[in-house]
Prior knowledge:
Blueprint: E1 2-6, E2 11-12, E3 15-16, E4 20-21, E5 25-30, H1 41-51, H2 61-66, E6 70-77, E7 80-87, E8 93-97, E9 103-108, H3 109-119, H4 129-133, E10 137-138, H5 160-170, H6 175-199, H7 210-233, H8 240-279, H9 285-291, H10 300-349, H11 357-424, E11 432-437, E12 440-444, H12 451-468, E13 473-476, H13 486-498, E14 503-508, H14 516-525, E15 526-529
Parallel strand pairs: 5-14, 5-15, 10-13, 13-14
Antiparallel strand pairs: 1-4, 1-6, 2-3, 6-7, 7-8, 8-9, 11-12
Helix pairs in contact: 6-11, 7-11, 8-10, 11-12, 11-13, 13-14
Amino acid sequence: MLKEISCELFKIGEQMRPPVQFHKGLNIVLGGEAGANSIGKSTMLLIIDFAFGGDAYVKSDAVRELDNHNIRFTFEFDGKPYYFIRHTASPGDIFQLAGNGNVIASLKRDEYVNWLSKHYEIDFTGLKFRNAISRFFRIYGKNNYNELRPLQMRGGTESQESAIHALVTLFNQYESVLAFEEQLQLAEDKIAAFKSARKYQFIPSAVDGLKKYEDNISIIASLKQEKADLESSNNQAVNSEEVEKANQANALIIQMQDARRLANQRENDLHIIELNMSQGVYPTEADLTSLREYFPEANLQKLIDIERFHNKIQTILQDELEAAKARLEEELKPLKQMIAYLEKQAEEIHPSIVFSKEFLAAYTHLDRRIHKLEDENEAFDTRNTLQNEKKQASDRLRLQMETVLKVIETTINRHMSEISDYVSQGKDNPPVLGIKEYNSYSFETPKDTGTGTNFKGMLIYDISILNSTALPALAHDSLLFANVSDDTIGQILALYAREKQKQIFIAFDRASKYDKMAQSIIRENTVLKLDADEQALFGRKWGRKDTAK
């Protein structure tokens, strides 16, 4: 249980407050008789929530006004204290301390929450500790106190399915439906894989409907008859395997022809390059000297200079020709290897029956059309099978959930009826929870939809959950009591006080207006008393003009 919370900023005026001590059962943060606002009642509940792993306090007015600071807190399990410190600037890190204050371990928020879950012994299948307990820490600033939708968080906008799922896990019933959920998920995964395979054309598309499916059957029968007629027109018996071999051989021949054509092109290019490299492109100086016999007036020196320039260019071109030759030789190697491989494959296939090109084309066309239509129908059958599997898995899950939810609904309603009778001395109708399906519920008090009744119903619901599950604690802010009658509040206080093992944290004020029994309960269970100005949680109210920054 939560044993203690302290902060260096908790003050009475300028004097530091002592640590706030908590106990099992009811723990009251009490405001003054004037009902002063903004004195720290809700803030203290948010700090308690912070100790339980919540984050709402980080965004509170207190942190904005006072800047970031440390919160120290102590839990106790089996008589052993566990000390922690958490800073608002880095709430994702919680540090465990030794008794002397030295840090002995650093925990991430998820690790810390798991630690709490295990020590409170509610490490149930599918249960998330914060998701469970946060629903019942109804504090201003957490937006989880919609009296018309008490099962849902986020002001009642959380999906009903998520809220009911959390309830199932808190009642430790999730394991009984987990296998059915996994079966449904498996069916959905198969359908998703089937759709992806169709999208990327790994498998053929299914026909659109039963009529197209039946039309395909008719067309397949007609095509098979055409195929049989074609076979009978051939001079020799037709063997599908031999037809396939013939098609493969023809395909290999076409590939060989393409490969040989490319190889010939490369060899021709290579021949031209080798010719240029061996004979050169420009005349030699000896050739130019011979030219003088026919043209004695020619400027031989000028021609020789030009030829030397050409020779320099030829040297550059020689490098390029050698590179081109090497490239063509490299390209020829795989082409020759491919030709040799295709020739070997063609020899291995070697069909024993020779078919005409016309026969092969007609036969293959019919055969492929038949297979395409058969594949479409097979995909249709597969899709229907997968959809049926999903429906069956969904029906099994629904039936199992109905059984589980009926047990939970009955348990909660029985507890709420007992609590309501205690609170109203048997005069009022109790609130009723109706869980219609895994994703739909209703919550109402029959014949009474008043605001006070709705808030009373939510308080009763929370106490029923505390009584019937392993929920270790709940917190109720003073705003939840505002619309409820004084007599009812007095009875609810008495009900809170009956709890001896778990913890209930409430913010309350104006104690004197309640009867003596209620005042006695308040007096005995108050752990922190606050009031205006210097008696506020942090020793001041920053909303005052004289304290404004």
